[in-house]
Amino acid sequence: MSFKSKCKYSNDCPIFLGSDKSIVLDLMVYKNVFCNRGEKGWSNCKKRVEFEQEEITHQN
Prior knowledge:
By secondary structure, this protein is an all-alpha fold. The chain has one domain. Helix content is 52%, strand content 0%. It has helices at 14-17, 27-35, 39-42, 46-59. The radius of gyration is 12 Å and the shape is globular. It starts with 13 loop residues before the first helix and ends with a helix.
């Protein structure tokens, strides 16, 4: 996958950065399924939803 389809939260995401050890999948598999997949993967990522909710909260 190209970096054009990388999640916009990847630089702040503990899962993408590998610091969240609760992920049982291989990190590369996880990234390919969620982080680098575009809208289809992003819409299934719970961490992205959390980032979006924080963004909305800070705007209000």
